[in-house]
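[agent] plan:
  1. take the single chain provided in the ticket
  2. run structure prediction with default settings
  3. attach structure tokens to the ticket
  4. add a short note for the reviewer (M.T.)
[agent] executing step 1
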Amino acid sequence: MTVEERLQDVKQKISAAEREANRSVGDVVLVAVSKTFDVDAIRPVIAAGQRVFGENRVQESEGKWPQLKAETDGIELHLIGPLQSNKAADAVALFDVIETVDREKIARAIASEMRKQGKTLSLYVQVNIGMEPQKAGIEPKETVAFVNFCRGELGLTIEGLMCIPPAEDHPGPYFALLRKLAGEAGVSKLSMGMSGDFETAIGFGATSVRVGSAIFGHR
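[agent] step 2 finished; step 3 output follows
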């Protein structure tokens, strides 16, 4: 299959999962995860109509996205990997959405940079939904208080929550927990589901899914 065919296949699966969950077709945003792929690999996906992309690293993204954004209007770029505070200025300059706000220091750095640069980004709090020591994210029990801190003290607009469930477990209970936390925190967006489980995530209310290898192939 070509990359265009794989993109179409993923979109069809998203539509089928939306119907299965009694949701409106078009409800779920596809974030095409282009990390580790170069501009030549990404251009055909843009040409096929995809406009929302996800990247893990600020530095890698700076090597390709300014050029790609200049070539095509309407690109929306999501940072879906951990952010270091010393990269906050670069991240705010390049990205439209940061999905990995996960601690006070990084929230303060983003708030400060958005003021300096006069930019407003969409922000998500990353939740370490399986409480795995190797993963970034705020603990589930601290999520509501952290969202309230970001909004109240820093004036940040937190739109949603993001998670990556433990790879070895069934993701359903983790997606259900993220949905519950979003309700308690008063946020409407849920970034959950990747190549292996995005259809399950849609059944649990995902508003966006992050799909890389099912579109671009394996790295």
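[agent] step 4 note for reviewer: The mean pLDDT is 97.
[agent] ticket updated
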